[in-house]
Each structure stands twice: as C-alpha cells, then as structure tokens.
Design goal:
The protein has 29 helices and 60 strands. By secondary structure, the chain is of the alpha+beta class.
Length: 1802
C-alpha cells in the first residue's frame, strides 16, 4: 500500500471561543514587522578563547579562501548577474564573477552550513546551518543584513532548503536522525506544516512551480510526492512514496516537475524516469537502448519547450518536452526511445551537479557547478553562434591531500587526488599555476633552502608510488634569456621522476642538512635518496604499519635520526643512512640500519580511572570537612552515631581498544622522546613517549606506554589531526578533526608543553567531514594556512590587514627565477604507466634476469655436452656392430641400469602431468567452445532436415525444421486460475470441515454432579464374582441399548439431512436449468454493447497462453509425425537401394548365362544423396582432423593474411575430400560384394566357356539341346521377374513418396492456417496482457471479498451454533434449578412445620468467595476486610428481599444453626441444595453473559457481511466492465478465414462487394440451431405435462403429511399414558435403557458391609472396657462404703468422747460452750455437703458409664463444677488443721477433679 505521512498544522486551542479570539488578536499584534532586522555582529560565530587568558579575540584574520567544496550538493547559487554564492566550511562566500573578489559571512551556529538557496526575487538568500538544533538564517541582499531566523526545524543539520515559486513559503528537510520536512511562513518565523519525510537520506525537496500545493522530495533509493491537503482539523502534508515496480531502485539526485503534475527524474545508469502519480509510467532512453547520459543525471531544467538534462558525463542535452510528456511504452520493457534535440559537450572530465540560471531577462546564460572542481559559464541557446563553455574558476576537487609553504616566499603548494598540483600566491590571493598528472597526488613538500637556494623545488608523491621533483620558476624572466614570450606568472617543470613504492606515497621529508630525502608509503616502507643534481636511491627499510608521517630530528639534537609515525600506532626511529655507501647489487633493503621502535598502548581508561578515584577522594574529604563543621556548630559530640557508609559505584574498567586507535600526528620533544596525538578512543590527550631500553621484542607484539600525558580540553571526540609550530616555537597551531583550528601560546624552550593551557579556537572547515589535515605557518609567521578534507583552503593573517600591508610592503609573492641553462635542458622522462616497476622491483627483476641468463647458459652447456655424449654412443654402437659376433656386446649389456630408465620414466610422466595441467585450461576452453558450437548449430534443432527424392521423377519431400523443445519462458500458473473462488456458493467447496460434536464445557456441571456430588471413597475395594458378573451383564445390555439408540439417531440425522428445505428445489431440476442456461447460450453478437461474456467462457492471459501453447503443441505433434513418416520413407529408400543392388547382382548373374541378344537393359540403380543423410556430414574421425590440420597449415603458409576466407575454403575442401572418400568407400564396398560373388561367377564362366568350346568343337544332341532350351527359358523368366520386381519396387516407392508429398502439402496448408490462428492468438495474448494487471487486481480484490465473506459466514455459523448451544445450556441449567426445587420439596414432605424456614434458607442469597480468594494469603484477607461495608450492604439487601428468618414466637433464627426440633440431616441437605442452587445460578449468569456477547458478535458479523457483499458487487461490476472492454478490444482484431465462393451465401441473393457487415458462420452450426428450435418446442410441451403432474403430486403429499402428523400425535399421547401407568411419571426411556450396573454402588455396598463388621468388632472391644469400668466402679463403691461405715463409727466414738468430755468439764466455766457449739454445727454442715457431693459423683459416674456404652464422652450435669475426689476421713487431730487450711481446700479439690477428668478422657 502507498505510504502516507500526515502532519498536523501547529495550532493553539483555547478553552472557549472568546479565548481563541483573544489569542488570535494577540498573535496578530505579535506579527513581526517587515522592517525588523537582527544584528549580524551579535549573532555570528566567533572564536572561542580560554577564560582569563591574555589571547586576543582577533588573533587570526581571514585573508582569503582558495578552495571550493564542489562535492557538496547544490553548492552554487546566483544572487545577481555577477555575484555567485557558495558554502566554504563555516563561511558563505560571495564571489564577484568579473573582479573575482570575495566577501564572507560566518555561520551563526559555528557548526557549519548545510544548504543554501536564494529567493525567487533575489532579494534574500538562505543559509540553513548545522549543529545542535540549528537555525535557518535569512539574509537580505545586497545589504547583507540578517533578516529572519527560523528555529526548531531539525535536530542536527539541514540537507536542503527551497522557496516556492512566489517566495511566500520555504521548505526545509533535515538530515539524520529525524529527516524532518518543514514548511515555513518565513517572514513570520512560523512553522506551518511539519512531518518526517522518510527514514533515509533526503537529497532535495522542492515546490511544484505549477501547483503550489504539491511538493517533491528525493534521496537515497526513493522519491516521494507530497500534497498539502485541507482536512477538518486543518492542513495536512500527505506523502506518497514512489514505487519503482520492475525498474531497479536508484538514488535520485535530480528531478523536474512538469505542468500536468508528472515528474521526470534521473537514475544512476543515466536514463530518465517519467513518474505519473507515484508509479513509473515509462523509462526514457535513446535509440537502440543507449542511455541518455553516461552516468547519473543530476540537475534538470525546463525551458522554452525543451527539457534540459545535465549529466555527470559533462554533457548537456535538450529533449522535446511534448514527446516526454506524452511518452508511453508499448513493450514489456517499459522503455520509450527518443533522441535529444540539442546537445552540448562541456568537457570530458566534467561532472555537472548543479546549475543556476542568470537573473537577466531573456538570458540563456547558466552557471554550472562541476564536481570535478570548477564553475562553468554555459550559453544554452543552442544556436550556430553559441559560444563554447567557459570555465570561470577552477579548484581542487575532493580532500586536500597535502599542503606546504615556501621557505622563502609567500607561496603555497597543494595536491589532491584530482591529479593536479597547484601553486598559490596567498599574498596576492590568486592561483599561479597548475600541473596535471596521470595519478592523484598524496604528499607534497617544499625543499628547504639548503637544497635549493632559490626556493623553487617541490617534491610531490602520488598514489601510484611515484615521486616527482618539480621546479617552480617565473617564465617571464625566462624571456630575457631566450627571447620567447611565455604565458603565466609561474610554471612547474618536471626535473626528475622515480618510483620508490608500489602504493600511495603518504609522506616526504628532507633531512635537516638537506643531504637525504626520505619518502614513506602505505606499503609499510620508507625509502632514502641522496640529494644532489640527481636524486639517487640509497635504500629502504620496512616499518610495522602504513606510514603516517616523517620527521627528522632538529639541529638541537646531537644525532641525525628520522622519526617514522605509522597509522597503526607504531613509531620507529632510524639512524640516518650514509649517502656515500656503495650501491647494493641485489636489493636496496637496508637490514643493518640501526632503529628503535615503540608501539602505543592505550592508557586513557587508566587515566580516567585515576581521575575518578581522585574525584571521589576529594568529594569524601569535602563531606568530612562539612560534617566536622556541623559538629563544631552543634557542639554536641555524636560519638555514638556511626558514619553512614555510602555505597560507592564501581570504578571505570580498564579498556584497551581493539583494533588499536589510529595515530594522527606527532613530533620530537627531546632526543629519544616525542609527543603523539591519537584518534579514536584515545583522543583527548597528548601523550609524551620515549623508546624503551628493550628493543629485542617483535614490534608487532610490543606494548609500550607513554611516560607522561597532557589533557587537551574538549577533544574526547575531536582529536588533533595536524600540528605545526611558528618559527620561534611560541605558537602551537593545531588542526582539529572537527575542522576547527586551535592556537596555543607556549613559553620558549617548553619541550614538555607545560605552558600549553590557554588556547584560541575557531571553526573554519566543515564540522562533519572537513577534517583539518594540514596547517602551516608562512616563512615570516605572518600567515597561517589550513587545508581540510572538504576541499577548502583558507589563509589567515596574524596581523590586521592594514598592519600586514605596512609590514610586507609588497602585494605579490616573489616567484623564483629560472636557473641558468634551464631552457637548453631536455624535459625529464616521466613515469606515466601506473603499473611501472618500482626501484626495488626493477632491481629484483634485473637480478632475476641475470639469474635467468646464467641458467640458460648452463642449460646450453649441458645440452652441448649431452649431444657430444650421444655422438660418442652412436660411434660405439657402430663399432660394436662391426665386431665379430662372438665378441660383440649384446643389446642387454649395452643398456643402462634399469633404475635409470625407471627414473627417466617417472620424470617423463611427471612432466606429462605438468604439461596436461598447463594445457588443462586450454583443453577445457576448447571443449566448452565445441559444446557451445554443437549446442548452437546442432543441438538447437531436434533433427536435421532430411530430403527424400523420388527415383523416377523430380518429386521430393523434406522434413520440417524443428527447434529443440525447450522449457517455456513463462510457465502456466494453473494453480492461480484454478484457485479463483466463484460466487456461486453451491459450486464452492465447503467453507469448513465437518465438525465433531462439541466438547463438554468445562463450566458445565452434570445433573448427577449437582444433585449427587461424588463422595470420596477408599481405593482397593474388591467385589465378589457374582457382583462382577452381574455388573458385566448389565453393562453389556446397556451398551447394546446405546448402540441401538446411536444407530437410530444416525438414521434420524441422515433422514433430517436428506429432508429438503422449504425453499429448496430439486437438484435434478437445478442441474437441468443450469445445463439449459449453458446450452442455450447468449445469442447476442460478441460485438453487441450489451453482450456479457459467460464466466466459463471468460478469457485471460493464462488461458490464452495455454491455448496458444496447446496450438503450438498440436502443430509440433503434426510436424513431428510427418517428420517421422518422411524419415521412415528415407529408411525405406536406403533399404530399397540395398535391395535393388542385390537384385542387380542376381540379374547380372542371370544375364551372364544368357546369350547377349537375350539381355534386357537393367534399370538405373538409385543412389542416396547427401541431403537424404545429413547426419553423416558431422561425422569425423582422427583421419579427418589430421587432414584438416594439414590443409590448414598449407593454407597458412600460402596466404597468411586471408585467414578468415582461408578457413572457409579449407572447410569446403575438407567436405569435398570427405565426399570423395565416402564415394571411394562405397565403391570399395561394391567391389567387395562383387569379389565375394566372384568365385561362383568364375565357375559359371568356366562352365560356359567349356560349353561354348564344346559347342564350337562338336554339335549337341537333341536331348542336350532340349535341356539347354529349358535352361534358357528358366533364365529368361528369372530375368523378367527380377526386372519386374525392380520396376515395381521403384514405382511403389515413388507412389508412396508422391502420396506423402500430397499429404505434406495438405499439412502445410493446415499449418499455415494454424500459423494464422497462432498469430491471432498471439495478438489476443498481447491484448490480454494489457488488461492482465487490471483484471488481476480486480480478481484479487474479488477473491479477497469472497474469502472475507466465506470467513464471515463461517464465523457467523459458528457463532450461531455456539449461541444455540449456550441457549440449550441455559435451558438445561434452568431445568436443573427446577429439579433442585423439586428435590427440596420432596425432602421436606407434607405438613413440615419447618417448611417455610428451610425454604427461606434454600432461597437465601449468599455472597460466595471465589476459589482464588479462598486460596489467598492473609494479606488478601486483610484487603477483603476493607470491603466489609459493601458486604454488609449486600446482606442488608438480602434481608430486605427475603425478610428475616424468625421462629413462630418472633425471635430471629440463625440460618447456620439447625433450630431445635428440626431434623439435622434435613437441615444439612437443605444447605447442600442451596450450595448447588448457587452453583447453578453462577453458571446461569456466566452462560447468559456469554450468550449476550455472542449475540453482539453475530450482529457485528451480519453488518460486516452486508458491507462485504456491497463491495463484492461493486468489484464484480468493475470486473464485468473490464471483461466487456476486453471483449470489445478483441473484437477489433482481424481474423483471417479463407473461404471459397461457394461457401458464401447472402440472404438477398446478390453478393455485395463489401462483406464487412457480413457474419461468418458455419453451415453446420446453422443447421444445428434450426434443429435445436424443434427440440425446444417438444421439450416445452413435455415440461408443461411434467408441471401438471408435479402440481397434483404436491397436493397429494400435503394431505399425506397432515394425516401422518395426526397419527404421530396420537402415538405420542398413547406412549405418555403407558408411561404414567407403569412409572407414575414421565421418564427418559433412553436413559432408562442405558442404565447399567453401577460399580460404584456395588463397591459402596461392599464397603458398607466391611465397615459394619469392623464396627461390630470395635463395639465388642468397648463392651469389654465397659465391664472393666463397672467392676472398677463396684470396687470403688465398696471401698467408699467401708470408709463411710468407719466414719460413722468414728462419729459415734466422737459423740461418746464428747459426751464424756462434757461431763468432765461441766465444772468449767460457760465461756467455751458457745464456741464448741459453733464448731459442731460447722462440722455437721461440712459432712452434709460431703454426702451430697458423693451422691452427685456417683450419679456422674453412672451417666459416664452409660455414655461410654454409646461411644460418648464425659458429660457433666448442666452448671455443675467438676467433682472433687473423695476426701480422706478427718481425724480429730486433723480438725484444727482443716479449719486453718480451709481456703486452700477448694483448689485442691479442683486439681483432683481435673486429674480424674483427664484419666476419664484417656
């Protein structure tokens, strides 16, 4: 689907309308005035200076910009007819074309400038900046005042900006990461619309000049079309992504909008794409498929009816606009070919990337940006007087690879990969000269004055490893000597060129004394040359990595050494080689040159770790001091409080980057010590390093760390790329990775850089890719020059311009004068071949050549010696042969040792294998070439063309030339055509498979589960045999009943399935109607407007392709069959020729025995012609190949220059020789056959000669004459029969050939008609292909609608089925609820006084806790308690519904407790039934909810089905229109039908001249239609009779149905009556029949019996215990009785004693009488209480015994305390103690009772 991006207008919404109006008024008041300006001086970026430093802000003054960022997109704009503007790093450069003066505007952000554009009126220009939240700055021209600032359009940088046609709106697009497209009301600094353009890089965005509401953007692999749409929420930006379709995706740099909304864009491969909507309409190319441009097409322009394209090939072409606008493709390639109207070649090394037109009216002048580093002025009038393109300015293209300044003058030299070396006069601000070479420059250095006194020698290194010495001189001074007048102020002349390296030269450096030149390369080598009039190589060394820089030790160092800096982090120091050393003979490698190496190991992570430790320590100390101060202020010692221990974060880990960080630059500090600036992870510091003492380790495995470091402020992600010093070393200048420059002030002789603190910094080059790789000071320290990778070169003055002019007192730099004799010297030989040998390679090659020559000399000497030995051996052999045999040596004795021969054989076989390996590629090439030739010329045909010629006539018949059957280029997609769904639902397959019975719902509870919940029972109950047998028989009976019922159900289901619907029609009738519709056809003509193509006759490209392939297959089968018959006839002829030859031999034998006058002339024997056996032409053997080689060698020797013609002639000669050899073979074969028969012939001839001699010598007898006549007659008969057979065979063959020829001619006629039919089918196929896309899309939509409807219908049916199931479940649950109520009533019975109470208990609503809540934790219980109020409210509602449960007396009853008088089992049963009722109610609520949800889903599906049906019908109508249009187009095709005149009939009798209105129809078809009319009439009458019979049958069936329904109703009533009589109620007969033996019940019965036996046994045990307890009770009672008797006796004794005592004390006073009386009364009362307690205790024991007999426990009387044990008898002596210890007595009794109760419980 098309991608749509929308963005809302930035609006402000208020609370009400009044507030909105007020805000609108405020906004209108806050609109920016038209004359408002910003102060540029306050906003532009400035140099940043370290605070509190003495560095002035204007330390450097911009002098001039020498570069041009030609690789930046759209980096050229025109302000007026003479002022150009472009971006140079952080500057806007305004360039005067005529005077070449420059004006500069700095960026305001300091982060660079992303894009620029100018207002259509040229009164304003825009600079869209880069950086964090950059702004868009709008300047007024020509005042250059800052007019507007647009804020908040993107995050990092702007990539393009553009005005609309009237200049009221500005469009901007950002770069990564947001790619935000923004439309601005720039005069009010407001954002109108904003949205994300895409997630890829966007190159350009622009308004359509013809429709202000349309925009276009393009970029990496995309183009997008935007529209400003008005919606109810405001304006929106809607974007459509362009779809490339079959065209390969490409980056689009340029495009142009056409007036009708189309867009033309470029491609990577140079063609044009015409976009219509968001799709490619056509791809435009030149004739014969050539591309419009050789490379990318970037800018476009639409001027004066022609579309001008500017290509990266440096060509401007003008195309016919109308032709492009109306371009369309009629082929599958989607290409449109056309040629340009005009063409202008700007240059061969030109790459036009941006153009702007002159602002003058009616001007044809354009200014073009050349990515190769130039600005061109083009006149595109395309007339005969058009001037040639003019190059206004030329610059370096790409990154500046090297820069250096002269040591004597204000000259600067630069080089880049654009293959040029330029020299600038930065005092006069102009370029002096340019030299171009074959390869790009990579390194450059100006020779010191010690080497060249005039200061005019440059050393330049190039990417092919060549180093060139260039002399700079003033050619005007050369005029004094030679008298010539050269042009230019300076010139570079090649002095010497040499190639020390095989990779780019990265550094060159002169030794401090000027005696040695060192060159470094990325091939990890450093080469040394001795300096002189001619530079001679000394030698080279290998270093561990690619060379980054070279620096010789200064004069302050005692030793002369070279510091080699490698990109990989290695540093190597080598001793200066001796220039006077002897030139080595084999190699220039200097292995013994003393050296030291250093490999940098990262220490940044350790530095950061130590800084973090220090920071934390200082923070701890600070907190400690603060805490101590707080303690002093509070004056309260907190000794008891412990210090809080803070959890410290983990320290930063030690990290070593892998791969290591790259080395950027470095320089010497002290002997053996140096500073390094690293990139990558290790940036942010300057590292002070020195060489270690241990130099024995491998440099690749060394790990050296710097001994000191210096942090550089704000350089963690911005390393120092280049460093230079002023001549007095008081200024340290740094070129940064971000394109800025820094200047540090240093103290004199500060080698450790301790004073490197304060700095001055300014953003100069582009902050993203303008890395400042080179920075230099002029020889007098008045200028600073920088060069970056953005192609810009800037010069700065260290003094203000006025002071600078005063101090210099000159305006031009001095160019060195030419040296004496320069004009007479010849030009030095340059190295132009990039593959030329380097110095070392040439040296090695010379050594190899020398060794090769020595080896050849050695081989020649060996061969000469071998030749002499062979000559001597031959002489010995001759001498040996001349000796007598007995002294002659045998050959075996002359042979060498067998081992020598085996060794020679091994060597020979090894060399043969080597030769085979060497020739293997050639052999494989020849084999492949032969197979290709055979595949092209022989295998491409199924068989050779065989021509069979008649024997007696010239008739001939040839086979068809059939190509080899290959795979079809386009396979049929049968599955696509076969899988298209039809709207006919009856013919469509079932929407879903037959479903099995729905599984039982997990929430459904069976009736048995609800009414009779399963009880847990122990496992392992074993039933008896009789019980098991009874269960088995019951189960078998139930299974048989189930099977019968299941069978009956299936029969009923089948019967109901066969039952037709009320609106159903007879399938036979439906089939007959369908066949009638198909057979009757649509008799309207196909050309009629209302003709509808039937679905089964609709044709598409696939079916037509299948029809076409079927026709081709049929044609091929016919041709193959004819070829087979012709080849068979050819084989018959071959057999016939051999047969005729055999018969001719027999005839010859017969005629030899006949007299000469009886001979008949035999027929001419036929021969097999070469065209009859073409397969023999390609047969060849080794002899043929040898002969071809011989002929070829002869031909080459004769005519070497006519190789082509000679080869053809050779083939012809070879064919003739092969034919001659074939004839000779046939003659030889015939001779062999004759020779084979020659013995018999010779014998016959001898006999004949003998006979003739006998006849001549003597006369024959009559018998002999008779025998001779018989023999003659027999021979004549044989002769005649042989001749007749030969003649008949020949005529028979000719007749077969003639018949086959006639059949082939008829087949040719049929094939020609088939070709015409094939042509028609192919035209129809092409036509159908045009409609295929539309038809496929519509068919796909129709299929989607059909599938969607099928899915909806299936979902709807499923939903309805589920709804029916839910309703059935609800009915079942309601029935179960009624069954529960009935079960309650049955359990209550009649006249139950607790019926009302139990009914209320059953119906009471109880809020039940879910299972999850029951299993919750205590926290959940606490949470549930918070809802207690809600529970109380709910229970109050229940009380209101059901009332309070009270007794008859009105007191409230608790429903959780069984009331007195009620049966507890009945109460428990009621509670269980209530729980089951609650379960059913919960299930019923859930089922109703799910049923309601299903109803809603059904309603939604029904609505959706209606919508799908409507869209379905609309798509079908569209498809029908397409089919009708397709049929009309197919009707317009011409079809060839050959007719004879007698086949043409006309209704009016006379045949008109114009048959265009006639209808071609087969006569048989007309007769068939007429016969069909008669058949239809008969069928019509038959259908009427059938209708009457069907109506009568229908009435009869209705009466029968009513009678059957009444009979069924009577039978049902009879069945119900019988059921009531037998069972007393209606029962389910099926459930009754399926009742089987319940194993669970039987097991429960068995368990009951077992438990009863166990309980009886336990009762016996308890009875025994009871008897024991009774006996114990009797013993206790007996003991108690005895104690009572003894106590009674004691009482009696007491009384007697008291009586006696009283008698004795009568005399005593009366004061003690009252006391004794009181003591006696108390004792009596105590004894009475004791007797009562004992009686109660006895009663309790009796009751306990009764309870124990019933398995009860100890039960005390209500309100009775535990009985104390029997107290011992109180003796008189203890009476006083008892009285004193009375209060403790009850406690002792309680303890005793408790102990007794415990014993009873045990």
């Amino acid at each position: 689907m098309d991608e749509e991006n929308t963005a809302s207008v930035v609006e402000q919404t208020g609370e009400n309308t009044e507030v909105m109006q007020q805000e609108a008024e405020e906004e209108s008041k806050e609109q920016l005035p038209a004359d408002m300006y910003y102060k540029y001086e306050d906003l532009h970026s400035r140099a940043s200076i370290t605070p509190d430093s003495e560095i002035p802000e204007n330390l450097l003054h911009l002098s001039h910009s020498f570069g041009y960022d030609s690789g930046r997109r759209a980096n050229l704009q025109l302000l007026d007819d003479r002022t150009l503007i472009f971006v140079a790093g952080n500057l806007l450069v305004l360039l005067d074309v005529s005077t070449k003066e420059q004006r500069y505007l700095r960026s305001c952000s300091g982060g660079g400038i992303g894009s620029i554009t100018t207002h259509p009126s040229k009164e304003y220009f825009v600079a869209a900046e880069k950086g964090h939240q950059p702004n868009i700055i709008i300047y007024e021209y020509p005042s250059l005042r800052l007019y507007r600032i647009l804020r908040g359009g993107t995050e990092q940088a702007y990539s393009f900006v553009d005005f609309n046609r009237n200049g009221s709106l500005l469009a901007s697009v950002g770069s990564a990461p947001d790619y935000m497209l923004t439309l601005w009301n720039w005069r009010q600094e407001e954002v109108m619309l904003s949205c994300k353009a895409i997630s890829q890089e966007v190159y350009r965005v622009s308004f359509s000049p013809y429709n202000p509401g349309l925009l276009t953007s393009s970029g990496s692999g995309h183009i997008k079309f935007w529209k400003i749409a008005s919606t109810f929420t405001g304006l929106k930006l809607q974007g459509l992504m362009g779809h490339f379709g079959k065209t390969a995706a490409t980056d689009i740099e340029g495009y142009v909008e056409l007036p009708d909304g189309k867009v033309v864009s470029g491609t990577d491969w140079g063609n044009l794409l015409l976009w219509d909507g968001n799709a490619i309409k056509v791809e435009i190319c030149r004739k014969e498929g050539r591309s419009c441009h050789a490379g990318m097409v970037q800018p476009f322009a639409l001027e004066d009816g022609q579309l001008m394209t500017f290509g990266s090939d440096g060509v401007v072409r003008g195309w016919d606009f109308e032709g492009i606008d109306a371009a369309d493709s009629n082929s599958d390639s989607s290409r449109f070919e056309m040629e340009p109207m005009n063409e202008m070649v700007v240059g061969h090394n030109v790459c036009l990337s941006s153009v702007v037109k002159s602002s003058l009216p009616d001007s044809f002048i354009w200014f073009a940006q050349d990515s190769s580093g130039a600005i061109w002025k083009l006149d595109l009038s395309f007339t005969y007087t058009t001037p040639d393109p003019e190059c206004l300015f030329s610059f370096h293209a790409g990154a500046i690879q090297s820069l250096d300044v002269s040591k004597k003058s204000h000259l600067m030299a630069t080089t880049t990969l654009d293959r040029t070396v330029k020299v600038f006069d930065f005092l006069a601000k102009r370029e002096l000269t340019t030299s171009r070479f074959n390869q790009g420059g990579t390194a450059l250095s100006w020779a010191p004055t010690l080497v060249n006194q005039s200061g005019g020698l440059l050393v330049a290194g190039f990417e092919d490893g060549v180093v060139r010495l260039l002399e700079l001189y003033d050619p005007q001074r050369l005029h004094v000597v030679t008298g010539r007048s050269p042009k230019g102020d300076a010139k570079l002349r090649l002095k010497q060129a040499f190639k020390p390296h095989n990779a780019p030269v990265t550094a060159v450096a002169y030794e401090r004394n000027g005696d040695i030149l060192a060159t470094g390369s990325s091939d990890c080598t450093v080469f040394f040359f001795s300096v002189g009039e001619k530079y001679n190589p000394i030698g080279f060394i290998h270093v561990p990595g690619p060379v980054q820089g070279l620096e010789w030790s200064p004069h302050s160092h005692s030793e002369n050494r070279l510091l080699i800096l490698c990109q990989s982090g290695h540093v190597v120091e080598v001793q200066s080689p001796d220039p006077e050393a002897q030139n080595p003979t084999k190699t220039f490698l200097l292995p013994e040159l003393p050296s030291r190496s250093f490999r940098f190991r990262s220490v940044k992570s350790r530095i950061k770790r130590e800084e973090e430790i220090t920071r934390r320590q200082s923070l701890k100390e600070k907190k400690k001091r603060e805490r101590e101060e707080r303690l002093k202020e509070s004056k309260q010692p907190e000794a008891g409080q412990e210090e809080e221990k803070e959890e410290e974060e983990e320290l930063p880990p030690i990290y070593i980057p892998d791969p290591p960080s790259p080395l950027c630059c470095g320089f010497y500090s002290l002997p053996g010590q140096f500073w390094l600036s690293m990139g990558g992870y290790d940036s942010g510091f300057l590292y002070h390093c020195k060489f270690s003492e241990k130099q024995d380790e491998d440099p690749d495995h060394k790990q050296d760390e710097p001994f000191d470091f210096l942090p550089v402020h704000n350089t963690d992600d911005d390393p120092i790329r280049s460093i230079t010093f002023s001549s007095n070393r008081q200024l340290l200048l740094c070129g940064m990775h971000s394109g800025s420059i820094r200047v540090y002030l240093l103290q004199p002789n500060d080698h450790s850089l301790t004073s490197m603190q304060a700095y001055w910094s300014l953003s100069v080059h582009d902050n993203q890719y303008g890395h400042a790789r080179h920075i230099r000071c002029s020889h007098d320290d008045h200028f600073v020059l920088t060069a970056g990778e953005d192609g810009n070169i800037f010069s700065f003055g260290l003094l203000p311009p006025e002071e600078l002019q005063k101090s210099l007192q000159r305006k031009r730099a001095k160019v060195p004068s030419p040296r004496v004799g320069l004009e007479n010297e010849a030009l030095a030989q340059d190295i132009e071949d990039p593959a030329a040998y380097s110095i070392e390679t040439a040296k090695e090659k010379l050594e190899r050549d020398r060794l090769h020559r020595e080896a050849e000399l050695k081989i020649s000497r060996k061969q000469k010696k071998l030749t002499e030995l062979q000559r001597e051996f031959r002489q010995l052999l001759n001498t040996n042969q001349s000796l007598p045999e007995h002294v002659r040596l045998k050959p075996v004795e002359l042979q060498l040792d067998r081992r020598f021969i085996e060794q020679a054989e091994r060597v020979k076989s090894q060399r043969m294998m080597e030769v085979r390996k060497q020739l293997g590629w050639e052999e494989e090439r020849c084999h492949i070439a032969l197979s290709k030739l055979q595949a092209w010329f022989r295998d491409s045909l199924q068989a050779n063309v065989v021509t069979v010629v008649a024997i007696r006539s010239d008739h001939r018949v040839s086979t068809y030339r059939l190509p080899t059957l290959t795979e079809p280029s386009t396979q049929l997609r049968h599955q696509g055509a076969a899988s298209r769904p039809d709207r006919d639902r009856d013919a469509a397959p079932d929407r879903r498979k037959s479903r099995a019975e729905p599984a039982k719902d997990s929430s459904e509870i069976d009736v048995e589960e609800v009414l009779c919940p399963k009880a847990t029972r122990p496992a392992g109950i074993k039933l008896g045999d009789r019980q098991v047998e009874r269960l088995r028989k019951a189960a078998e009976k139930a299974e048989q009943a189930k099977a019968r019922m299941e069978k009956r159900k299936q029969e009923w289901a089948q019967l109901y399935e066969e039952k037709p619907d009320e609106n159903c029609e007879d399938p036979l009738d439906v089939q007959a109607i369908r066949e009638a519709k198909e057979s009757i056809g649509d008799l309207k003509l196909k050309s009629a407007k209302d003709f509808t193509v039937p679905k089964h006759l609709r044709m598409n490209a696939e079916r037509k392709r299948a029809e076409l392939m079927g026709l081709e297959q049929n044609i091929r089968e016919k041709q193959t069959e004819m070829n087979r018959r012709i080849v068979a006839l050819r084989d018959a002829k071959v057999h016939l020729v051999s047969q005729l030859r055999a018969q001719a031999q027999q005839l010859h034998k017969v005629q030899q025995r006949l007299a000469a006058h009886l001979h008949r002339a035999p027929p001419a024997l036929p021969t097999i012609l070469p065209e009859e056996t073409p397969e023999k032409r390609l047969r060849y053997g080794r002899t043929t190949l040898e002969r071809y080689r011989a002929l070829r060698e002869q031909r080459f020797k004769a005519v070497h220059q006519e190789e082509q013609e000679g080869s053809t002639h050779l083939l012809e000669l070879l064919e003739k020789e092969m034919e001659g050899e074939q004839e000779n073979e046939e003659d030889d074969q015939e001779r062999g056959e004759e020779e084979s028969s020659s013995p018999s012939v010779s014998s016959v001839t001898r006999e004949e000669e003998e006979e003739t001699s006998v006849e001549e010598g003597m006369e024959l007898s009559e018998l002999e004459e008779e025998l001779w006549r018989e023999e003659e007659i027999r021979l004549l008969h044989q002769q005649d029969s042989l001749l007749e057979q030969m003649e008949s065979l020949v005529w028979q063959f000719d007749a077969e050939l003639l018949l086959l020829r006639h059949q082939k001619l008829r087949l040719d006629w049929q094939l020609k008609l088939a070709d015409l039919r094939q042509l028609t089918l192919y035209q129809e196929l092409l036509l159908l292909k045009e409609f295929e896309r539309r038809e496929d899309s519509l068919q796909e939509k129709l299929n989607e609608r059909i599938n969607e409807e099928n899915s909806i219908m299936s979902k709807l049916e499923e939903c309805n089925e589920q709804l029916e199931m839910k309703q059935r479940d609800i009915v079942k649950l309601q029935e179960r609820e009624k069954a529960l109520m009935a079960a309650l009533q049955a359990s209550l019975g009649e006249n139950n006084k607790f019926e009302e109470f139990l009914t209320k208990v059953f119906k009471k609503k109880v809020k039940r806790v879910k299972k999850k809540e029951q299993m919750g934790t205590e926290e959940e219980e606490v949470d549930s308690d918070e809802d207690s109020d809600e529970d109380d409210d709910w229970e109050d509602g229940d009380d209101d519904d059901y009332g309070s449960i009270t007794e008859e007396g009105g007191a409230a009853l608790d429903d959780s407790v069984c009331p007195p008088g009620c049966d507890p089992e009945l109460f428990e049963n009621t509670l269980q039934l209530r729980e089951r009722r609650l379960d059913l109610e919960e299930l019923l609520v859930e089922e109703k909810k799910s049923a309601e949800a299903l109803k809603k889903e059904c309603d939604t599906l029904v609505k959706k089905e209606k919508m799908v049906k409507s869209s379905w019908n609309a798509v079908e109508d569209d498809l029908e229109l397409v089919n009708r249009e397709k049929q009309q187009k197919m009707n317009e095709l011409d079809v060839v039908v050959p007719l004879r005149l007698h086949q043409i009939e006309f209704g009016n009798g006379s045949l008109p001249s114009d048959l265009s209105s006639a209808l071609v129809l087969d006569k048989m078809e007309v007769n068939r239609l007429q016969e069909r009319i008669k058949q239809l009439k008969v069928e019509k009458s038959q259908q009427k009779d059938l209708y009457c019979q069907a109506r009568q049958q229908h009435v009869r069936l209705i009466h029968d149905r009513k009678d059957m329904a009444a009979k069924i109703q009577g039978l049902e009533e009879q069945c119900d009556d019988l059921m009531m009589m037998k069972y007393g109620r209606l029962v389910d007969l099926e459930a009754l029949q399926t009742l089987s033996g319940n194993r669970v019940l039987e097991e429960l019965k068995q368990e009951k019996l077992l438990r009863e036996a166990a309980y009886a046994k336990e009762i016996k045990q308890w009875d025994a215990k009871v008897e024991e307890a009774r006996e114990a009770l009797m013993e206790v009672t007996k003991c108690n009785t005895e104690r009572l008797l003894s106590m009674t006796n004691l009482f009696d004794q007491k009384k007697e004693l008291e009586h006696k005592l009283n008698a004795r004390q009568k005399k005593m006073g009366r004061q003690f009488q009252d006391y004794r009386r009181r003591v006696d009364q108390e004792e009596i009362r105590r004894l009475q209480v004791l007797v009562k307690t004992q009686s109660h205790q006895i009663e309790a024991l009796r009751r306990e015994i009764g309870l124990l007999s019933r398995k009860g426990g100890l039960v005390l009387p209500p309100g009775q305390a535990p009985l104390p044990p029997l107290a011992p008898m109180v003796t008189p002596t203890d009476r006083t103690h008892t009285g004193r210890q009375g209060p403790a007595y009850p406690s002792k009794l309680l303890k005793a009772q408790n102990s007794h109760s415990k014993q009873g419980a045990i």
